[in-house]
Amino acid sequence: MVHARRQILLLLRVIWDFIQGMYAFNLVGPCVTIFGSARLKPDTPEYKTAMAVGRAFGESGITVMSGGGPGLMEAASRGAVEAGGRSVACRISLSLEQSKNSYVHHSVVFRYFFVRKVMLMRNSCALIVLPGGLGTLDELFEVMTLIQTRKIEPIPIVFIGRKYWQPLFDMTEWMVSSGTITAAEMERVLSLALFTDEPDGALAHVKAKSPPLARIALSDTKSGCVRPPARDAISA
C-alpha cells in the first residue's frame, strides 16, 4: 500500500511538471534552444562566443531558450537580452549549479530531467550546442536518438566549437564503421547539422534550414510571430 501511494505521488509530480511547463511556455512561440556548460566563466573564449550566439538571435527577434544556469547558458541569455531579445529557461531542481542567471525573463523549475528535456525542445525549431559536459551530451544525444528513431523530424543542430566537437564527429564515424549505427541513420541525424565557429553562421543556418512552418515564423519575428510569455504564467 505504501509502495502504491509512492507510485501515485510520483505520477502526480511528473504530471505537475508537464502542466507547469506547458502552461508557462504556451505563448513563447518558435525559439532556439542553446545547450552548453554551466562551468565556463566570463573570462573564457567560450563564454564570449556564447554571448555572440545569443546576441545574433536576440537581434533577429528569435527567443533564446536555455537551462537558465550560469556559464554558457548565462552567456547566451545575456547576449540575447543585451541585444533587445528575449530569454526563457527550463531550470532543474539540483543541489549544484542551479543559481538562476540574471538574464532570464521567464523560467520554470522542473523536478525531473526527462520532463525538462521535453520542454527544452517542445517549442524549438533548432538546437545550438556549445562546449559542455555530461548534461550537454545527455540533452544532445536525446535529440539525436529521437531523430534516428523517427520520433521527431530532423531539425537544424549547430555545433559551435570545431576543436571541441571534432572528437564527437570522429566517434560517429567510428560507430558507422563498427556497424552500431547505419550510415543512413547517421546521415538522417546530421542532415541539418552545421559544424562551425561562427555565431552569425549559426543564425543563417537556422533561418535557412528550420522546418517550413518555423521558417515562416522566423522570417516574421519582428511582426510578432514570436510572442513573449504570458506575464501571469507560472515562474520561479
Could you describe the 3D structure shown?
This protein is α/β, with parallel strands linked by helices and 236 residues long. The protein has a single domain, classed as Rossmann fold. It contains 9 helices and 7 strands. It has helices at residues 2-24, 45-59, 72-82, 113-122, 134-148, 162-178, 183-189, 199-209, 212-219; strands at residues 31-35, 63-66, 87-92, 106-110, 124-129, 157-160, 193-196. Strands 4-3-2-1-5-6-7 form a 7-stranded parallel β-sheet, with helices on both faces. α2 packs across α8 (199-209) and α5 crosses α7 (183-189). It is globular and about 55 Å long. The relative contact order is 0.17.
- Second-tier CATH architecture: 3-Layer(aba) Sandwich
- Report mean pLDDT, rounded to a whole number: 87
Into which percentage range does the β-strand content fall? 5-15%
Approximately how much helix is present in the residues? 40-55%
Our Rg estimate from Cα atoms comes to 18 Å
Sheet of most strands? 7 strands, parallel
Oligomer: single chain
Q: CATH topology, which one?
A: Rossmann fold
Distance between the termini: 34 Å
Number of helices: 9
Into how many domains do the coordinates divide?
A: 1
Strand neighbour order, sheet with most strands:
4-3-2-1-5-6-7
Under CATH at level 1, the class stands as: Alpha Beta
Shape: globular
SSE run: HEHEHEEHEHEHHEHH
Low-confidence stretches: 222-236
Total strands: the figure is: 7
Q: Which structural category do the helix and sheet elements fall into?
A: alpha/beta
